[in-house]
Amino acid sequence: MTESLYGQMGVDAHKGTVESAFEGKIDNNFPHAFVNATRDKKAPGYVKTLKVDGDGSRPTQHVLHFMETGDETSFEPSADDSHAMVATDAGAAGFIDEYTFADVLDVNKLAIPGRKDLKEMILYAYSKRISEVIALHREYGFDEEFLGGETADLPSQTSSYICNGVLQARVHESCFIDGVTMPGDKIWGFSSGGKSRWEKKSTLV
Question: Cα separation of 101 and 148, whole Å?
Fold first, then answer.
């Protein structure tokens, strides 16, 4: 079988290695749900999850954009992405309340020759935007706490920076979406075009 282009670039697009390595070792009472989840032993009737995901390869794009424009806001989208990647996945399983969020930022502050302030620019841009993202969620009824996280200098391990988010959430089992489908179930689709109340501009081109 021909290896995919992703595979040739060192990316396991199908997560096969991950699934094989952790099979049978993760507490997951709901194998069909969108995220791993387990019943909360200390709160009968509730289900909890811990979701970790991140900005992927986009930080490299943000650094390149900054190098082209000099715009320090180039790093702000990492906050949107790291939060959305965990919150939307959790939301797909019915976790829409009691959010506790933290982040992990690994930075190579030497990524741009001659710019010793790269780490500071990334952190201040991220800090500004993540506070706005969480404030927006609170405005629309999400009970969310931000507990900071971890920041590390890793000049030998990354060529730019890595931005990951960690989300812990809990929901009553009656509101949990376990992902088990039955004959007769309906699938609803909603258009993502136009402009929502919290967006600054329309997504339509």
Answer: 8
The percent of the chain in helix, strand and coil, each rounded to the nearest 5, is 35, 20, 45
Q: Is residue 88 part of a domain?
A: yes
In terms of DSSP H, where are the helices of the chain? Answer: 5-8, 16-22, 58-69, 77-91, 118-139
Q: Which of 94, 118, 98, 93 is nearest to 107 (CA)?
A: 118
**Contact indicator for 109, 153 with CB cutoff of 8 Å:** yes
Q: What is the CATH number of the domain that holds 160?
A: 3.30.1330.10
Reported as a single tens digit per residue, the pLDDT across 145-197 is: 999 999 999 999 999 999 999 999 999 999 999 999 999 999 888 877 788 88
In total, how many domains does the chain have? 1
**Structural domain range at position 166:** 49-174
| Within-domain flag for 105 | yes
The three-class DSSP label of residue 133 is helix
Q: What is the side-by-side strand order in the sheet with 38-39?
A: 38-39, 46-54, 161-172, 99-107, 144-153
